[in-house]
Batch of 4 targets.
Target 1
Amino acid sequence: MAAISLHQVVKRFGETEIIHGVDLEIKEGEFTVFVGPSGCGKSTLLRLIAGLDDITSGALSIGDIDVTNVEPADRGVAMVFQSYALYPHMTVEENMGFALKMANIESGEIKKQVKKASDILQLEPLLNRKPKELSGGQRQRVAIGRAIVRDPEVFLFDEPLSNLDAELRVEMRLQIANLHSQLGNTMVYVTHDQVEAMTLADRIVILRDGRVEQTGSPMDLYYRPGNEFVAGFIGSPKMNFISATLLDVKGSQVSVGLPDGQSVLINTHSSNCQKGDQVKLGIRPEHIQLAATEANALTLSFLANNVERLGNSTYLFGHYQSNDNFIVHIPSDQQVNRGDKMSLYVQQSDLHLFDQEGLSLRDYE
């Protein structure tokens, strides 16, 4: 196991800067997930850690060693790619042990390491098969096993589940979580899938345009987003945003005026709020209720345009004021019809608030 430290890491391709001075500390034994939209730089950052791309400026350490200019093979990392990249003419056992064979490791030791990895990943019955005889999930387990036999200090995963169907993704997600629990190695995992990020990570790093937007545990980011981008990215369906105005500012409280004439008091940590400021009120679809559970709950008049009943939950898509894409998630089956008008309720403790720059104004303490 080893910690990873990035200090003011910059990556340019020609004149184009892709990674903009990233500072990041990944703790020893931590499962860290890089997540963000396509093109945000998450895979590039992973490749910089692996040494597959050179750092333009800045420094990178793994453990206590500066590896900024160290060759990939000497960094103590093993990488699992989106593509399985298995040799088709080799058996599973030969694929898993190939890197050790090339390093001139004694054959008995190779068999020992392959046996250990195959036991962890439940691959022993498949050791004599060729890749074409395996399912997608089995091939990905072989690719992970090939990394395990190298006994690295750090595992790097670059969207390893994106080629799998939905059922296999769930199965492999559990396999990877169990793998981290068993081995305890530092793991860095890249994905665009926030479900993978939320379920696997000890800590999530949210990236946008080559910059770190926020880091924290999955629940920190869910309940206490630092800005509008993070709030909208974490959570499925995504957070609803309502344009609003600050009606009054009194110390650490602001009065927020909604488009329908209502107002609501919200605690704020900011001293820069001013009366008349344009803000956005954030409401997660799953925090909206069909019945009020507190006296001062915010009440919203809603028109259902579309209804999705899934048996265990209900999704409502409709209209609130000028917002035609308002989403409600009810964790039960509800008999709601298209065109129904209804009142929705939100507890004040579930409201989020963002300024014109998208920064959070809400005091979550």
Note: The chain is about 25% helix and 35% strand.
Target 2
Amino acid sequence: MSLAEQIEEKLSAIFDPQYIDVQCESHMHNVPAGSEMHFRVVLVSSTFKSTRKVQRHQKVYAALSDEMEGPIHALALHTYAPDEWEGDAPSSPECQGGSKSKGG
């Protein structure tokens, strides 16, 4: 099972999401081929109703605390309550670090 699948399974068990999408975006960064370090998570859950963005992110970080101490290097979070979800979340920007940046 990939790390993205593990993350999705763990978040699904904790947040009972209406929608979840976990993508490994390591290929967009200056990391060794096959790395699983950079992730984008879109999570829609009633758990987030009446909570601020910071609180939502704290809940996800707490749920993934073991992974955040180990293999996860970067985590882009897009968290929504069901009534906020419009079916789309922002795309991640291109990596600007290391050899992936222009002129670098």
Note: The beta strands are 19-24, 38-44, 74-80.
Target 3
Amino acid sequence: MQSSTKSVTLAELADHLDATLHGNPSVRITRVAGIEDAAPGDLAFVANPKYASLARTTQATAVLVEPDFPEIPAATLRLKNPYLAFARAIELFYQPPTYAPGIHPTAAIAPTASIGANAHIGAYAVIGDHVILGDNATILPHVVLYPYAEAGDNFFAHAHAVVREHCRLGDNVILQNGAVIGADGFGFARQSDGSWYKILQSGPAILEDNVEVQANACIDRASIGETRVHAGAKVDNLVQVGHGSTVGENTLLCAQVGLAGSTVIGKNVILAGQVGVAGHCTVGDGAIATAQSGIPNDVAPGKIVSGYPAIDNRQWLRSVALFNRLPELLRDIKSKLK
């Protein structure tokens, strides 16, 4: 739940969101909230059908719903994408901290670094030799940019994010706390005595425009070539992108996803929480893997897969239903063998 001292009328809110209002246009909204715990003065939303029944009993003053949603006691703001509208509404009531241009006296900036206009460099940040930063960068405390790292305009790095040497980031890239871009890939060659010889990881990690990497996620550098995350992709907390992998445009890698080395993920893919993909596999454009799926082979474009080894989602659902009946089926088989 987000709160503020700001309030807007439903008429103003409908105009801002380009929604159709069913209700009193002069009523004021003071905050946004989840539909389960909303109170008078709140704006809530329904995007998931399983919450539709809550809309009839919610205490929220107004609810964002789809155009054909049934009438409810609360006022409704009707539009095609209630969830997106809810995201835009939050911005009316909550403003994150702003960071004025300036360099903290404890920041360590190499004289060969190039810093664009209007940068905010926080306490104990370290910016190495030959780093290049575009305009409007926000570098919060304890961020480290290794030598020859580059980032475009509007780069935002939260505390303790790290960008390693020679890695390149596009415009509007956001790194949440503890994100590590370009750490060494996991590459070792076995020697004759059984010990492991470390393979130098020479290739950079590259993040294109509008990529966000969330807390404690790791995008490893490549032994040769590059690791690349294409424009608009979003990488959730604790995700591992292995060395030499490619992640397509507007793809979502949800929490604890793991990509082994040289994995190729297409555009508009969704890998739900804890999905694992074996090395050298390709997941086609628009594919979806449900939570905890294990992918040992290529996945065709547009497929929905589940389970381990990952199979067609509908087949997996039938298999799970059958699995729950195995004790009963076994008893039936034993009784017939007697």
Note: Residues 82-93 form the longest helix (12 residues).
Target 4
Amino acid sequence: MNDEHRAFLETLLTTPSPSGFETPGQRVWIDYVSEFADDVRTDEYGNAVAVVDGEGPEIAFGGHADQIGLIVSGIDENGFVRVDKIGGSDRAVTKGQHVEVHTDDGIVRGVVGQRAIHLRDPADDEFEDIVDQHVDIGAKSKDEAEELVDVGDPIVFSPTIEDLHGTRLAGPGIDNRVGTWVAAEALRRAAERDTDATVYAVSTVQEEVGLQGAKMVGFDLDPDAIVAVDVTHAMDSPDVTSEERFNDIDIELGDGPVVARGSTNHPEVVSAVREAGRETDIPVQLQAAGVRTGTDADAFYTARGGTPSLNIGLPNRYMHTPVEVIDTDDLEAAADLLAEFAVQASGRDGFSVDL
């Protein structure tokens, strides 16, 4: 990954964008794609769509901009901030973490309180529900805290990213800023290869709270095919259960993007993307999706009466924690794969199944 592309990724990952509060992250994405897109547009909720115009079929690549987090639900008499969830926040990892409260006046730093081990009864040790946890911002009273934060302010884990060995990267919010990075980069690379297709890159909002942005974009965009790029569970770490290993679910970091098959995933789009991988020697892993994908693809594919859709997964360890781990080689491979898919799709009339 060259310096420019790495800088874009790091800026995305260090710009918090919890669901419902994605504007800062969307501005970063828009600034980047504006350098090579023919047009960039947004809607009332902040979904962003960039396009490189062509004369062939219309192909779209999408990722979701939002991340999980917490939200200020109240302030008690002693100045401690009470919280609730934004999206699928995990009560098992929130306690004892550094956090940022994003207010209209700037960032207020705090920590999620954790009762010291010396004071806990091991027999009663369990994870409290998030609504029973609290954030300590250092305030001495309710009045003092109310001068700093408001009910409804979003809270995120402190956005620190760390390089691990080789091409591995760790941090919070990787789900799914890496998907928006791939969508942007696939658009840029498709344009550089002079594809005849019209190619869109999409960065949606509020995926973590019900695929809401994809529902909006899917209704409005109407492409011939759309690929939703999101993270998927890597199965190559010790926390994977023996049952999962027994079922031979062997998705690994660094072994390439993951093509989902079944349910939402349109067989013609699946076939075309796999062929793009073969033509370019890009390794592709496979994943079964017998019921749904749990990604924006589930909203895209039923929009406007049916849009051929596919979910591409980026292997991710420790999802929905402050220490998600990915391999940047998988991101590069996914961007190249989708760019080649756009090039090869230029000669197609569409992706309908043959009946």
Note: Residues 174-192 form the longest helix (19 residues).
